Amino acid sequence: MRKALALGLVGALAATSLVGCTGSSDNTASNSGADNKDSKGVTIKVVTTYAGEDSNAQNYKDAVAAWEKKTGNKVDDQSATSDETFKTRVITDFQTGSEPDVLFYFNGVDSNDFVEQKKVVSIDEIRAKYPEYASNMKDDLLTASPADGVKYSVPVNGYWEGLFVNKEVLEKAGVEVPTSETTWEEFLTMCQTIKDKGFTPIAASLQEVPHYWFEYTIFNHRSVATHNALPGKADDEQGKAWAAGLDDITTLYEKGFFPENTLTAKDEETFQYFVQDKAAFLIDGSWKIGGIKEAVTDIDNYTVTYVPGMADRKTTDIIGGISSGYFITKKGWDDAAKQAALVDFVEYMTSDEVVSKFAGTSVTALKKGCSVDASTLTALENDAIKFCAGTSGIAGAVEDNLTPDERTPIFGEMAKIVKKDKTSSDAVKEVLDIVADR
């Protein structure tokens, strides 16, 4: 029996009008008018982040195969795991004229370059010819580009970032799972106990994916209302919060709470510490549930909870939102033979039915919401629903306001920062100097 599972993020997500999964079963595999498009027999080039450990990688492959069977078209899929290298590759492809026909990508400043170069097509322009395009979505949740305030991408599902926990490691260390009441100081004490018992407290590669800890340690010095903004200068209130957050990461490093090879290891390597019962905690996004499911034999041994907070940030305040969507490029749009197929592809991939499969324990922009079959959920997924339901506030990731180049003085030089070869304040100033030249 299908059971509706409300995934609204309580007051915070309600305040931002994010729509969670509801009991709506009136889903269709494509939007009105999509089946009538004459778009047979073409091959379209698509790039997404649905690859690697992304929990929707297989759902994406299945949806692509279903669309190909339905339409007779083909997809040249060049999807890859989302990291700084991937973002650089996408930008380079646009600069060299090698961009795809359809791109699933970030709505923030990462997409500014090709928006400013007018290399993607706005939703309004597409609707002028295909009026039903994205009609199943709430328009106020179709994110506008910060470059020009125009809406270009159609979202699938949102995200949250939380603290994944290996319960077996905690049990062996004699530590309880952090709760909604756990403070940052209590978390540090937990980490010390875990380390003393011979385990690694935190699985993280500061070389490759420092951004989760960057977000939450800064968040701990700000609030939901103030987190998602760039500093004006390194010594203003926001700049000082950034430096303080980076100093907290340095403290974690100096205390030995990260893996010994955190400054050289890849993300996949430190993730293995977590799923092989060597490390207790892992901050990652909602998409990581799929990676954990595939990597372990006993999913009941894992849960997700809140990153402990301090000061004005409640522990139950989280990082999250809807930050990505499908773009149709100008190059693809101008190809008369492909145009209808591109529209049909995006409509199919953002239909109620497909989005419901992708959303799982995350949020969507669907007018009708999505539905989840409770009997198919694991213990970790059920814990994720409780995690969402207990959220008190939500802030977008501030890193989305920075380009890859602007992130480099921090993300690319975490080793210098935690070894104190460069001060946190200098790192923040270097970022802002690059931003000023934007």
Question: Which helices and strands occur, and which strands form pairs?
Answer:
Blueprint: H1 10-15, E1 43-47, H2 57-71, E2 74-77, H3 84-95, E3 102-106, H4 112-116, H5 123-129, E4 159-166, H6 167-173, H7 184-196, E5 200-202, H8 211-219, H9 237-254, H10 267-275, E6 279-285, H11 288-295, E7 302-305, E8 317-321, E9 324-328, H12 330-333, H13 339-349, H14 352-359, H15 379-389, E10 393-395, H16 404-411, H17 414-418, H18 424-436
Parallel strand pairs: 1-2, 1-3, 5-6, 8-10
Antiparallel strand pairs: 3-9, 4-6, 4-7, 4-8
Shape: globular
Task: Determine the mean pLDDT.
Answer: 89
Q: Are there runs of 5+ residues with pLDDT below 50, and where?
A: 1-19, 22-36
Largest sheet: 6 strands, mixed
Helical amount: 25-40%
Strand percentage: 5-15%
- Give the topology string: H per helix, E per strand: HEHEHEHHEHHEHHHEHEEEHHHHEHHH
For the secondary structure, the number of strands is 10
Count of helix runs? 18
Radius of gyration: 22 Å
Question: In the CATH classification, which architecture of the largest domain applies?
Answer: 3-Layer(aba) Sandwich
Q: Termini distance?
A: 54 Å
CATH superfamily label of the largest domain:
Periplasmic binding protein-like II
Count the domains. Answer: 2
CATH class categorisation of the largest domain: Alpha Beta
- What structural class is derived from the secondary structure elements? alpha/beta
Reported by name, the CATH topology of the largest domain is: D-Maltodextrin-Binding Protein, domain 2
